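Q: I'm building a small set of examples for a reading group on sequence design. Run inverse folding on the following structure and report the sequence directly after it, with nothing in between.
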């Protein structure tokens, strides 16, 4: 049976998922947005950030999100930022399909992450990701522009937003330009922890 297509992002309380420029990426706002994740044991292990970390519900959610994912899809700007920051064995450990205009050879990393660069659109990238994922789910990993394309094409089944207690004021707004008229949301789950609130919705056609 085919898995779901989902995304899962950290979002500021005013709706942003990243600062406006890559230069600011490791700045204060980004760290505040992702602070909950950087404390988690699973996240620390996967990104080679060092020993230890919390093992509560936030950690379980990070691990569950990783384990359900059989293939990832991402935009080129997320890839460009990550290429500079990920450890050599990039933290996906699945095939990753990068939607881009740039022609580039397959890039295989140790640990099972293989980046494929797809030049003919989001549907082709998703078809390839579904094939690679088998029974597991396909994660649209980011960033905002790519997630929005999938949302507006009606290709997302479910999503989780982790609301972080931070305000950005400006940056990359997750739902800027969404085709709200075609999309209805059904609450699936809401889980609050000490640090953040994880909100999961199923997407239905209106
Ligand atoms: N808060 C979170 O949880 C979270 C999660 C993931 C990412 N992020 C952040 O999101 C930011 C990146 O997001 P973004 O919205 O700027 O960009 P993005 O979605 O990562 O990438 C957009 C780029 O992908 C390529 N692309 C997208 N659709 C395409 C198509 N149909 N055909 C061909 N190429 C296509 C284009 O690049 P080319 O024309 O150059 O190929 C486009 O400029 C990063 O700062 C990242 O850290 C945040």
């Amino acid at each position: 049976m085919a898995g779901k297509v989902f995304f899962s992002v950290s979002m500021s309380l005013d709706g942003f998922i990243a600062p406006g420029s890559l230069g600011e990426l490791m700045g204060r706002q980004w760290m505040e947005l992702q602070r909950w994740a950087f404390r988690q044991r699973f996240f620390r292990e996967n990104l080679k950030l060092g020993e230890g970390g919390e093992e509560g519900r936030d950690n379980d959610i990070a691990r569950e999100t990783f384990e359900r994912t059989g293939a990832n899809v991402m935009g080129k700007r997320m890839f460009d930022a990550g290429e500079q920051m990920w450890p050599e064995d990039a933290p996906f450990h699945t095939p990753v399909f990068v939607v881009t205009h740039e022609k580039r050879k397959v890039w295989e990393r140790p640990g099972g992450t293989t980046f494929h660069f797809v030049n003919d659109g989001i549907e082709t990238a998703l078809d390839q990701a579904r094939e690679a994922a088998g029974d597991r789910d396909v994660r649209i990993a980011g960033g905002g522009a790519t997630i929005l394309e999938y949302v507006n094409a009606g290709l997302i089944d479910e999503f989780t937003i982790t609301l972080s207690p931070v305000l950005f004021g400006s940056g990359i707004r997750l739902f800027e330009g969404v085709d709200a008229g075609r999309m209805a949301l059904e609450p699936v789950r809401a889980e609050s922890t000490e640090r953040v609130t994880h909100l999961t919705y199923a997407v239905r056609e209106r």
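The chain has one domain: 5-205.
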